[in-house]
Amino acid sequence: MDQMNNNYPPVLVVEPDDEFANLLTVQIERTLGCDVFRASSFVQTLQIVQSTLEKFLVALVEPHLPDAHSFEIVDHLLALSIPVILFSKTFDEGNREDILAKGVLDYVIKTGEYNLEYMVRLVDRIRKNRFIHVLIVDDSRSARAHFRYLLERRLFVVHDAPNGEIALQMLKEDDRIKMVLVDYQMTGMDGFQLIQQIRARFSEQELVIIGISAYGNNILSAKFIKHGANDFISKPFLIEEFHCRIDHCVNDLETYTALKHVYSRDFLTGLFSRLYLLEVGNKRLADAQKEDPLHSWFTIMVGVDQMREVNYEMNYDVGDTVIRAVARSIAGQFQDADMIARVGGAEFCVLMTRSGRDVINERLELLRKVMLKWSRSGRQNQRGTLPITLSYGVLDGHSTMMGDLLLQASALLYQAKSNGGNRTLWGVIERC
Fold first, then answer.
1. Is the previous residue joined to 83 through a cis bond, with omega within 30 degrees of 0?
2. Separation between Cα atoms, residue 208 and residue 187, nearest integer Å
3. What SS3 state is found at 162?
4. Residue 310 has pLDDT above 70, yes or no
5. 299-323: b or e for each residue (b if 16 or more CB lie within 10 Å)?
6. Is 0.85 surpassed by the pTM of this model?
7. What is residue 7's predicted lDDT score, i.e. its pLDDT?
8. Count of alpha carbons within 13 angstroms of residue 326, beta-carbon side
9. For the chain, which terminal residue's Cβ has fewer other Cβ atoms within 10 angstroms, N or C?
10. Residue 82 CA: distances (Å) to CA of 79, 98, 154, 283
11. What is the C-alpha to C-alpha distance for residues 48 and 36, in angstroms, rounded to an integer?
C-alpha cells in the first residue's frame, strides 16, 4: 500500500480477484487520494484490521472468499463497526432484503466500468457525509429514529426535532445544517407551513429540503415542491431509493456551493470578487440601515502605487506575488472587517462598520509599514527589490447602493495616486 499522507481515513478492499482489486485500488487512490489496504482472504482481512491503528472509512467487500463461508467476512466487519459496501458478480434479488438488513451501506454488481466508477463515487460520498448535518422534522419518535438510523449508517451528522417550531429554532442556532427532512402531517405547524418559513431565510441552493409523507401521491409531491422542497419521498420507500434521492440532493448542493465559490472568490488571492462585493454589499447596506441608520460605515479602497513598474520591470509573476502579499496583509490587519474584496488589478476594497477614523488610520499606516518592509526584504523577487507603497481612498458614510460607494471611494484612491501616491484621502457622505 502506498502512503498518501492525508487526513482521510483509509479504505479496505477485500477481493480475491487480483485484477479487479488492483483496478478498484488504483481508481480510489487516483480519484480520492485515500490510503487503500487490500486483502484477498478472510485471514488476511483479519490481520490487516488487527494491525491497522486507524479506523477504516469503509470496507468494499466481495462476500464470497475462498477461506470462509459466504458473507462471514461481512458479519465480522460489521461487528467491528466498519461500514461495508458489498460488490459481487451476482446478487440474488430474493436475498436483497436480508443483505440490507445486515446493515451494509449498499451493494454493487460487478458488471462493468460504470459500476467501478459508481463504487468510487459512493466512497467519496460517504467520506464527505461526515461533515454534512441533516435535520429530521417529524412528530413520530419512531419515524425520527428510523431516519436517523438510515442517515447515520451513511455517516451523516444527524439532528432531529419533533415539530416545526423547534426545527426553526435549531436552524437559527446551527448554520451547519444543510439538509432538512420534513414530514407532512405534524401537530401544530404542518410540513408546508414549515417549508415556507424555512424558504423565507434559505434558498433551494443554500439548504436542501426533502418532503416525506405516508400519504404520498402525485398531488402531494407537486405541492411539496411548489412550497419549496427540493424533492419528495413517499412512505413506504425502498432503502436504495431513499439513499439515491438523498445523495442526488447533496450532490446538487455541493455543485452549487462549488460554483458559488468560483463566482464569489478571486482566483489569485482567495478574497471575495468584485461582483460578489456588489451583490452582498447592497444587502449588508440595507440590513445596516434597518438596524441603525446612524452607525458608521467605511468603504476603504487600497491600491499598490508601483504595480505597473513591478509588471514591466520585473514580470507578471512577480506582480502576482505582490498582489497576493497585499491581500494577505489586508486580511491580517482587518480581521474584523465586514468584507474584503479584490476589485481589480492591484486594488482592494474593505468594508468596515462600527469602527472609527483613528482605528482605521492606525491600521492603514501599519499596513503600509508591513508592505514596505516585505518589499525591501527581497521576497518578491530574488533578482532585486522594488519598494512597495500603498495609497488609500476612504469614504465615510452610507448610500443606498454599494456601487455608488465603490465609485466614490475609487475616485478618492485615484486622486491620492495622482497626488504622488503613498497617501490617504478621506471623503464624507453627509448623513441625513
1. no
2. 23
3. coil
4. yes
5. bbbbbbbbbeebbeebeeebbebbb
6. no
7. 67
8. 32
9. C
10. 8, 18, 12, 47
11. 11
Place of cell 419512531: 142
Cα(136)–Cα(162) distance, rounded to whole angstroms?
Answer: 8
Angle value at C-alpha 24, between 102 and 37, nearest 5 degrees: 75
Dist. CA 61–CA 84, nearest whole Å: 7
What is the rounded distance in angstroms from the CA atom of residue 195 to the CA atom of residue 212? Answer: 12
CA–CA separation, 108 vs 27, rounded Å? Answer: 16
Say if CB 105 and CB 113 are below 8 A apart: no
Q: Residue 333's closest CA among 370, 386, 299, 296?
A: 370
Least confident of 150-159, 273-282, 382-391, 410-419: 382-391
What is the 3 state secondary structure string of 359-427?
A: HHHHHHHHHHHHHHHHHHCCCCCCCCCCCCCEEEEEEECCCCCHHHHHHHHHHHHHHHHHCCCCCEEEE
Closest CA to 61 of 40, 94, 84, 35: 84
Q: What's CA 164's distance to the chain center, in Å?
A: 26
Q: Which three cell numbers stand for residue 371?
A: 508592505
Provide the pLDDT for residue 191. 93
pLDDT digits (tens, 9 = 90+) for 399-416: 778 899 999 999 999 999
- Tens of pLDDT, residue by residue over 89-137, are 777 776 777 788 888 998 888 877 768 888 999 999 999 999 999 999 9
Contact criterion met (CB below 8 Å) for 287 and 398: no
Where residue 65 falls among pLDDT bands split at 50, 70, 90?
very high
Q: H helices of 95-237, where? A: 96-101, 113-129, 141-153, 164-173, 191-199, 218-226
The single residue listed with the C-alpha cell 492603514 is 364
As a whole number of angstroms, the distance between CA 155 and CA 125 comes to 10
How long a stretch of residues is the chain? 432
* Cell matching residue 425: 484621502
Asked if residues 164 and 140 have their Cβ atoms less than 8 Å apart, the reply is: no
Cα angle: 255, vertex 258, 263; to 5 degrees? 125
| Distance from chain centroid for Cα 394 | 33
pLDDT of amino acid 3: 37
Euclidean distance between CA atoms 189 and 183, whole angstroms: 11
Sign of CA dihedral 269, 274, 279, 283: positive
